[in-house]
Amino acid sequence: MIGIVFATHSEAQAFFNRVQARPIGEKPFPAYEFQLPDRPEKIIAVISGIGKVTAALATQHLITTHRADHIINAGVCGAVADDIAPGEVFCVTHSMEGDVLIRNATTVTYPSDCLGFEDLPAARLITGDKPICNLEKRSRCAELGELVDMEGAAVAKTCNLAGIRVNLIKVVSDFADESTEVDIKQNLPEACARLSGVLFTGIEKLIPRAAQSDPLPSKVGTLKKLLRFVKVEHTLFSLPLLFAGAWIGAGYRVAPLDTLLLVLLAGTGARTLGMAMNRILDRKLDAKNPRTANRELPAGNLSLPKAFFVAMTGLMIYLSACILIGKTCTLLAPIPAVALVSYSLLKRLTYLCHFGIGLVMALAPVGAFVAIGDGEAFKLDLNLEIVLLAGFTFCWMSGFDIIYALQDIVSDRQNNVQSLPARFGSGRAQHVAAWIHIAGMFFLAAFILVAPAGKTAWFMLMTCTSATALAYVPWIPLPVRFFPISAVSGIAGALVVLVKDLT
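User: That's the sequence. What structure does it adopt?
Assistant: C-alpha cells below.
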C-alpha cells in the first residue's frame, strides 16, 4: 500500500481536492484516505507537521499502523542552486541531514527512487532543523545539493531502515534566502497546484488499473499470495549451486537428465519447506517489525493452515524426490529437513544465527553431489572439490545474511532478536561479513587450483568477488544488496565450477 506524507495541510490541500480525499482520523496524525479512478488500491495520506522528528514518526505510523510498503513524501522546498525557479518539481534521488553543515562529519546520504516519476528532473536534498534564510548557509548547502527542506531526509532514513521504497517529490517555493517568507506566501498556491498534478500522474503509473474481467480472480489472487509467501524468485539462490554440486558429482560431465530433474525437485521442495516454516515460526516477530509487518501471515493475507499446507507440500516433494533418487539420499534426507525447519529459531538463541542458514545452503550442493552417485546401496564419498564448493556456499550465504540483518537493527534490539548487527552494530557486523566473504573467495580460488580449472573460472571468481563487494557500497539500498546482488554473487560462484574445463 502507498502512504503519503505531507508536512502541512496547505501543501496537501490541492491534491486532496483533486482526489477527493476523506478524513479518517486525527490522532496521532491527521489522516486521509482516497482511491484513484479505476484503481483498486486505497491510499493513506497523513499530515506530519513541520520538522524531521514529526516526519519520521508519521512515516513510521504509516508503515506500522497502515502497513504501507511504499512511502511518498511530497511538499515544498527551497532552491539553493541558482538555475532553479519556483514552481519546478523534482524527484530527489539522495537526501542528507543538514547537521553535516554544522559539524565536520561524514556525509550520510539516504537514497530514494524515481519509479513512477521518471520524467521529473533529479535533485539532491539537504534537510535541516530550521529554514535556511541566509546566504552563508545557502552557499554551504549548494556544495552538497540543489534543494533544502525540513522533512525529506527523515522520511527517507526511516524508509531505508524499514527496507521499503520511498519517493521524495519536491516543488520549489522559494530561494532559501532572506526573502523566503515572502516568496513562500506568493508562490505556494501555484507550486502546490503543480505538485498536485505531478503527484496524481505518478501514482497513476504506480498502481495498475483494476482488471475489467478476470475469470479466476480469487484463485489467481491466492496463487500470487502463495508465490510471494515462499519468495519463488529467490530460488536463484540455490539452483545454480545445486547444478554445480551435480556437475562435480558426475565427474564434470552432464548427469543423467532424470536424476537432474529429481535433484531440481528435491531442491525446490526443500526450499519451499524452509521458507514456509521460517515465515510460520517468525510470524509474531514479523508483526513487531515495521519492515516485515506486511508479510502475508502477520498482515492476515494468508491463513496459518494454508501456510502449513505449503510447508507440508514442500516436505512431501522433497522426501519423494529423495526416495526416488536412491538409498543414500533417503537415509540422509532428515538432516537437511531438520536444519531447514529449525534454522530460523537460532535468532532467538544466539547472534551467530547467520551461520545456521549458511549451513543449510551449504548442504544443497553436497546433496546434489551425493544424489548423482546414489543407488541401491548406501554410499557417502565426498571429495575435496565438493567440500570447497560447500565452504564457499557457507561463507557466501552467512555473509549476506549478516548484510540482510542490517535492515532490522532497531527492531531486533527492541524485540530481543539475536543477530550480529544488533549485538555489535552495523560497522563491526559488516567487518565480520567482509572477512567471511573473503574466506569464501579463498574457497573458490582453492577449488580452481585443486580441480584444476581454466582462465574462465578465474574470470568468474573475479565476477563473484566484484558482485560481493557491492554489498558494502553504502549508497546501494540494503534490500538490493541482499537481492539481487547476492544472487549474482552466488550464480558467479557456481559458474566457477560449471565452467571449469573452459579455457
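Strands lie at 2-6, 22-25, 31-34, 43-47, 70-79, 89-97, 109-111, 122-127, 147-149, 165-174.
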